[in-house]
Amino acid sequence: MAGASYAAAGVDIEAGDRAVELMKEWVRKATRPEVVGGLGGFAGLFDASALKRYERPLLASATDGVGTKVAIAQKMDVHDTIGRDLVGMVVDDLVVTGAEPLFMTDYICVGKVVPERVAAIVKGIAEGCVLAGCALVGGETAEHPGLLGPEEYDVAGAGTGVVEADRVLGADRIRAGDAIIAMGSSGLHSNGYSLVRHVFFDRAGWALDREVAEFGRTLGEELLEPTRIYSLDCLALARTVEVHAFSHITGGGLANNLARVIPDGLQAVVERSTWTPGAVFDLVGQLGNVERLELEKTLNMGVGMMAVVPEQSVEAALSVLADRGVDAWVAGGVGERDAAGAPVVMSGDHAG
To answer: Which subcellular locations apply to this protein (predicted)?
Structure first.
């Protein structure tokens, strides 16, 4: 009987080395001048002397994954977009504070290292970092045979950003009379996929290759649409006009995420009539007989980011976002709240 080995246990070190070689091309594209060294060290290095220009730099940190959206990528055998979802989930949490994303690291856990597949995942992460203006300074690929199937994997990432202490955005800046600007999402982004998969696959019995007229493409293509990354748009907005707060609309839906930046004593009123959610949201509701409130607390309903700005900044803010190709509109406003009131109220019905 042959002796035990790491390879016999299911871990292929040579395949891991091959994956690193394949991903280097993409990681080199996701860099910044402050990055020191290259891929392959035990840790990524970032020249912190760049922070000397700040009076009081605050570092912001965030970590996230993409949830069960990875199951769609695996079933479709398309792996070069899920990384953009990962970056969006991380860096747009950073930018909510007003922080500029500086760098990210990633963690990819696989059942079996397939070098081309791992490289494709990293390609998406690197492309997302370019869109966010940050660097990908390192990561880890772990092979877990027996825990994950050969075709299964999961991804996670962590990011760091910096903001001047007196430029931090948030609830303490918001005032009655402020306007709420919504920025359109690219679709479902990376939240609510457990519900979405249950509705389309378990209840409706749809296949990923089903052509859906409302989407103008297949179901799989719609579900795999990458998360929009707003970091550079939000930073440009904050540099140009007065912004009081941002809210990244992720898990928990629009009202719950917006509530996180609404201070005691004030109330945000969001008018549903100001936009029409995309077809995917309507179909999830119809096919699954999902109540509107359940949809709204699970999905982004077509809004990926919100900005709270003073009324006098609205016109300039919309102009900045339009110039950057961001679909944006005034979705409501902030007023006084009585003791029994909710921090966010969703009002009216969506436009037809």
So the answer is: Cytoplasm
